[in-house]
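User: Can you predict the 3D structure for this chain?
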Amino acid sequence: MSKNEAPRPKDSRDAERRLVPLSVWLCSDTAPAGASVKDRPPATDAVCGRHRQAVGRELARHLIGTCTRSGGIVADVFTTSETVLVAAAEMGRLGIGCVPRLPVAQHLVGRLREELTADQRAAVRMRPHGPHALREALLGLEGGVELLIAALPPYPEFGRPVDSAGVSCPACRAEQPTLGGTQLGRFLEDARHVLAPGGHLAVITTARYERGRLVDVAPGIIRHAARAGLTYLQHVIALRVPVEGDALVVQSGPAELAQLRRAQSAELPPVVSVHADVCLFTRSAGGVR
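Assistant: Here is the predicted structure, written as C-alpha cells:
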C-alpha cells in the first residue's frame, strides 16, 4: 500500500479475498427435480425472455451473497424484471429498482405481489429514474450502496428499433437506448459517487453480432471505469444453462424456435443465451465526489 492510499475497510479486503481475477459461476435458473412451485421459474411471463434473463435469479443471488451483507442496499440500475429485487428481499437486503417507465413499474408491482410477502415487499423501493440519472435515483443514499447491478441493454446507442405494435412485453415497449460513450462515463462516475466504501458495481454484458462481426463492449467499459475512479476486480463468466457431465444443456424456448431458418439460409441461426459476462468493480480509495 502506498503512503497516499487510504486503508481499505476490513469488509472490503475480505470480499476481495473471495474473488479471483477470472471465475466461472454456475447460474442456471432451471429448477431442480422436486423443487417447490414457488422455486420454479414462471412458465409464462409478460416480460420477454431477453429482458427476464438479463439478470437471472441465481446470478443475482451469487452477486448479492458475494458483495453485500445482511441489511445492505442493492440497486438494480436497468430494472426490466423483478429478479434482482426479489432476490435482494429474500436475502434480507434493501432492493432498489430504477424504473423510468410506468408500464414496467406497473408490471413489477404485480410480480412483486406474487413473489414476496408483505414484509419482504417493505424492503423494496422503486425509483422513477433511468441510468442517465443515477444520482437522482439514489438521492439520500450517496456513499451507502453496497452493490449496483447494471445489466446493459444488448444494443448500442439508438439501439435496435422496437415496433411496439402488438408487443406484449412492457420492457420492450418502453425500451431505451443503452449508454453512449459520454453517457457511460457519467454513469460510471455517478456509480462511484453512490457506492459505499468497499461497495461493488457489477456490469453485465453479452457479446453481440453487429454488421457481421462480434462486438464485446467489456474492454471499453473497463477503460471508462478506470477514468471514473473505479477499480476493476474480477471478470465472471456466468453460465445461464445447466451442466450435465462435460456438456452444457442448451434448450431453445418458443421464441428461439420461431427464429429457425432453412439450413441453406444465409441468415444467422437463432441466438441462445448460454452465458453472461460480469465485470466487477469497486470504488477506489478516496472520498465521495
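The two ends are 22 Å apart (CA to CA). The longest helix spans residues 102-115.
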